[in-house]
Amino acid sequence: MPGLRPLAVIAVLLAAMFALKSVSLADSAVALMSMEDVEEAGNETAEAVDEVAPEGSEPQQETVPQTPAAAGGSDDEFNVTRSQFQLCELVENRRVELDMREDELDTREALLEVAEQRIEDRIERMEALEASLETLLGTLETERERRIGEMVSVYAVLEPENAAAIMSRMDEDTLVLLSEALQSEQSRRYAEILAQMDPGFAAELTLRLRSRANPPETQAEVEARLAGRDS
User: Fold this and answer.
1) DSSP characters for the chain?
2) In a domain, 88, yes or no
3) Are residues 166 and 135 located together in one domain of the fold?
4) What is the pLDDT of residues 125-149, one digit of tens each?
5) 202, part of any domain
6) Would residue 184 count as lying in a domain?
7) Least confident of 58-62, 74-78, 120-124
8) Residue 196 in contact with residue 167, Cβ under 8 Å?
9) Is CB count within 10 Å lower at the N or C end of the chain?
10) Is the pTM of this model over 0.90?
């Protein structure tokens, strides 16, 4: 029997090792089953959450505290908004100024149109008055020529000495007008009347007629001739 003890010891050791191996395999199987159970439970929980959550909703994200750098963006946005407001205010003020300027220009334009219309009306009245004056002057000229013609006819039939005596007492303007008319229309009769006048008076009258035959050189001469013509 003493020779069998080593074998017995080996057998006992092998049995013990087999038992330990079996226990280790059993623990591995239990651990594996536990992991499968946990995974299956997690899947079931996820499915339950999906069923409870409404369609189209997004999973809530974890709120991240805003850092000071991120918080500074609100100040920038406020500054931009304030700048835009100031710009809009400036544009509005400018628009109001332009509207006021436009109204002022419209008022001035209306006043200019009124003044222009008044000037045109005044010009029309002056033109009408000028036409009336020309008509009146034409009438007066015709009447003057008629009267001078009558005077020429009267002095043409008078005796030369009688005509000379009357003409010597006339005012200067009338004498010149009558002498010009007689010289132009009744030159021979005028020569007979002139011969009956005082030689000095006749010479002075001749010089006056000659000066009137020349064109006037000054405005005073023009006005004097016009005055004598209208009388």
Assistant:
1) -GGGHHHHHHHHHHHHHHHHHHHHHHHHHHHHHHHHHHHHHHHHHHHHHHHHSPTTPPPPPPPPPPPHHHHHHHHHHHHHHHHHHHHHHHHHHHHHHHHHHHHHHHHHHHHHHHHHHHHHHHHHHHHHHHHHHHHHHHHHHHHHHHHHHHHHHHHHHS-HHHHHHHHHTS-HHHHHHHHHHHHHH-HHHHHHHHHTS-HHHHHHHHHHHHHHHSPP-SHHHHHHHHHHHH-
2) yes
3) no
4) 999 999 999 999 999 989 988 988 8
5) yes
6) yes
7) 58-62
8) no
9) N
10) no
- Assess contact for 182 and 189: CB atoms under 8 A: yes
Domain assignment present for residue 23? The answer is no
Q: What's at 53, amino acid-wise?
A: A
Same domain, residue pair 193 and 223: yes
Tokens of 98: 């332009």
Residue where a domain terminates, one of 91, 108, 141:
141
Name the residue range of residue 181's domain: 158-230
